[in-house]
Amino acid sequence: MPLTPEQQAEIDAQRAAPRQTLRAVSEGMEAHLYRPREVLDHGFVRVIDYMGDDSAIVQAARVSYGAGTKHVSNDEGLIRYLMRHWHSTPFEMCEVKFHVKLPVFVARQWIRHRTANVNEYSARYSILDREFYIPAPDALAAQSTTNNQGRGAVLEGAEAERVLEMLKSDAGRAYDHYEAMLSQDGQQGLARELARMNLPANVYTQWYWKTDLHNLFHFLRLRADAHAQYEIRVYAEAICEMVRDWVPFAYAAFEDYRMGGATLSAKALDCVRRMLKGEEVTQETSGMSKGEWREFEGVIG
């Protein structure tokens, strides 16, 4: 299980002791605060703290004294305008801090988003738990034949069993050796900072990850996309549900303009205009490469 009974008891105690505040509060995010959302087989993501809400975005854009200067409908319209025209600074006025438990190989992909503050569990000072990500059978897939960084057909039968057995046995053996190398039972042992190098990339780590809403939206646009790797996408999807409740106006605009929208190049826009005039446009007459044309066809259906 992602949480021990002691950890769950600590979370319950935190949620049972609310405090009065003069800060802006998002009722939607308050419902998520501290509670872990289970992800993969041993992972989770939970909100530790947050600052701001939809009104904070509007307040920053207007540089106003507080709420009540405009109607809510105008606030929503302003947020959509800001999103539509890529005015990112007001969204940076909202921040959120997550506690995430995730496999190391997912963390290495996640850390590519360098616009956050991160503090990771240290295997130099502490011993990592014997917890590994072992994919569910329907997540075991062969290499894609058309995409060098994607998945193809799901493995089945004896092949799936063979791969699962190797993943489990290799992870267990590596951890057995990790434990054996550490200083214990009277032996001098190897330093933790060196012993950790023998652990596999599917061992679980944890970190606190704090970012602003603008950069969080960038993370979600890439990692909650259908083309993102499954193991990081499920974390992004869990975060999406929290953000939707935290800043509903901003998230709706994000879904519309970023997740559901598309950016067209000047050549692509020219092709659309020609098509609207009744002209038959092909890849050869579009001025685009085959790859660009294929992506363009995907956008316009």
From TrEMBL:
It catalyses: dUMP + (6R)-5,10-methylene-5,6,7,8-tetrahydrofolate + NADPH + H(+) = dTMP + (6S)-5,6,7,8-tetrahydrofolate + NADP(+). The active site is at R223. Keywords: FAD, Flavoprotein, Methyltransferase, NADP, Nucleotide biosynthesis, Transferase. One of its GO terms (molecular function) is flavin adenine dinucleotide binding. Its EC number is 2.1.1.148. Pathway: Pyrimidine metabolism; dTTP biosynthesis. The keyword Flavoprotein applies. Coiled coil: none annotated. FAD binds at T89, R112, H113, R114, E120, D212, L213, H214, H218. Pfam families: Thy1. Its cofactor is FAD. DUMP binds at Q109, W110, I111, R112, E120, Y121, S122, A123, R124, R196, R223. Binds 4 FAD per tetramer. Each FAD binding site is formed by three monomers. Catalyzes the reductive methylation of 2'-deoxyuridine-5'-monophosphate (dUMP) to 2'-deoxythymidine-5'-monophosphate (dTMP) while utilizing 5,10-methylenetetrahydrofolate (mTHF) as the methyl donor, and NADPH and FADH(2) as the reductant. Belongs to the thymidylate synthase ThyX family. This is Flavin-dependent thymidylate synthase. It comes from Psychromarinibacter sediminicola. The lineage of its organism: Bacteria, Pseudomonadati, Pseudomonadota, Alphaproteobacteria, Rhodobacterales. The gene is thyX.
